[in-house]
Specification:
The protein contains 3 helices and 7 strands. The protein has a single domain, classed as 2-Layer Sandwich (Alpha-D-Glucose-1,6-Bisphosphate, Chain A, domain 4), CATH 3.30.530. By secondary structure, it is of the alpha+beta class.
Length: 162
């Protein structure tokens, strides 16, 4: 990957595009149980937080990604989904994710359905979080999401528990 290429991950699974797309919309099942809002239709908005200790009060933890608010701006069932990052409070550069797009493109061939994930706007040359974000997104796209598809249970970030 070059320094100017957007962060990306690819996985192929033996499932239909419709099954993969449905799994992508189940964000709580593969990325994080700590979501506020809806994740399955055009124009849905949701907030992600990695703070499971103070869910909904993300400023308290004071570390890592405090929150990111997404709006689904692209929605073609079985083919493509786009989340636009409306706002984010990030590490040192609190706006690093703001204005970026998280894109899920699906194609099929004899091996199954290939999901190509791209976080447009995050590059090695310009993004402070690139290495850590790349490791995290790669895990969720190539391990947690396929596990959700094949076993019914992914490995998302655990939700708030009292």
């Amino acid at each position: 990957m070059s320094d100017t290429e957007y962060l990306n991950a690819t996985v192929t699974v033996d499932r239909t595009p419709e099954q993969v797309f449905e799994a992508v919309t189940n964000v709580r099942g593969w990325w994080s149980e700590n979501l506020i809002g809806h994740t399955a239709a055009l124009h849905d908005e949701f907030v992600f937080t990695d703070d499971s200790e103070y869910a909904g009060e993300t400023v308290r933890a004071g570390k890592g990604l405090r929150f990111a608010r997404f709006q689904i701006t692209g929605f073609v069932p079985g083919r493509r989904m786009v989340w636009h990052v409306v706002d984010a409070d990030f590490i040192a550069d609190r706006d690093e994710w703001t204005g970026t797009d998280v894109v899920f493109d699906l194609t099929t061939d004899a091996r199954g359905t290939t999901l190509r994930f791209t976080h447009e706007g995050l590059t090695a040359a310009e993004s402070a979080c690139f290495e850590a974000c790349s490791r995290a997104w790669t895990f969720f796209i190539t391990e947690s999401l396929p596990q959700l598809l094949t076993t019914g249970a992914g490995r998302p970030i655990a939700g708030y528990r009292r």
